[in-house]
Amino acid sequence: MPRIIWSIWPTTGFIAVSIAILSAVFLGGFSCFQKCAVNAPIVTEWELTFSDEFDGEGQPDPEKWISQEYNRKPNSNGPDGWWSKDQVRLDGRGHLEILVSVVENQNDDQDNDPKDYATGMVSTEGIFEQKFGRFEARLKGPRQTGWWGAFWLFSDAVEQIDGSGRDGTEIDIIELFGGLRSPQHALHWDGYGRAHQVKGKKLWFLSDTDEWHTYALEWTPEAYVFFVDGKETWRSRAGGVSQSAVWLKFTGEIATDKNTQEYWSGKINDLNYPDRFLIDWVRVYQQKSEN
Ligand SMILES: [Ca+2]
Ligand SMILES: [Ca+2]
Ligand SMILES: [Ca+2]
């Protein structure tokens, strides 16, 4: 009999304790639910501050975009990689198109390259800038190796060297490499010399960047949160989150030096150029003020 009692009591005791624990968790959960509802993050309401759907033909809207032209990637041992306005245009089907092309040597007074390369860029520098908010664009990346397209945020304050990114950070929402190399998010601060610091996130899972995807950044004073097609892909505070306004950039980049080709963008694939990087739309929002 005692043996039976002893075998029943521990079981009953166990059940009683379990019920007590479950009740505590359950009720605690409810009380937390009520309390937490008060402290829960406020659902963000966004207010559109800048957008372009890229309808029409010819040059992009000069009231929204500038396009720089210069020898972006000089190479003393081979063809240079230029930025040229004629590599940027609206394609008439609702997209901004940034091309990469083989071109004549653009600086034959300085070198005797048999050819050069040209791609292009647009930026809102001097027209629109913003700090914090949501920045998103629908993009179809380059297909061919040897160059890359990027959607990024920049200002001159990135050059300020103080051991922190709080005073200005280059935010690469996405870098899309031709030849289906893994794309990445990245943050750069304290200039581009010896003090330069960088933190990035490769997106190994994303293998079809030559198809349409939506890339977004939500930037608050406390964090950067990156998204691909609505799914969070990286969250960072690297450098200390920047508190400084930036302008938007969409760029093509081509560099012919050996290291860049080997470790970054792959071998230049002339025969299949021109290639294109397409932007369907870009939209920028800020948090709606509470008044
Ligand atoms: Ca040249
Ligand atoms: Ca700095
Ligand atoms: Ca469009």
Structure description:
With 291 residues, this protein is an alpha+beta fold. The chain is 16% helix and 38% strand. The chain contains two helices and 18 strands. The strands form two sheets. Strands 1, 2, 3, 4, 5, 6, 7, 9, 14, 15, 16 and 18 form a twelve-stranded mixed beta sheet that branches. The chain has a six-stranded antiparallel beta sheet with strand order 8-17-10-11-12-13, with no helix packed on it. Strand 14 (212-219) and strand 15 (224-228) form a beta hairpin. The termini are far apart. The structure holds calcium ion (3 copies).
Keywords summarizing the entry:
291 residues, alpha+beta, Jelly Rolls, 2 domains, twelve-stranded mixed sheet, binds calcium ion
Note the topology.
Layout: H1 2-39, E1 46-52, E2 57-58, E3 70-73, E4 81-83, E5 88-91, E6 96-103, E7 116-119, E8 121-123, E9 133-140, E10 148-154, E11 169-177, E12 184-189, E13 197-202, E14 212-219, E15 224-228, E16 231-236, E17 247-253, H2 258-265, E18 275-287
Parallel strand pairs: 4-7
Antiparallel strand pairs: 1-18, 2-5, 3-4, 5-6, 6-7, 6-18, 8-17, 9-14, 9-18, 10-11, 10-17, 11-12, 12-13, 14-15, 15-16
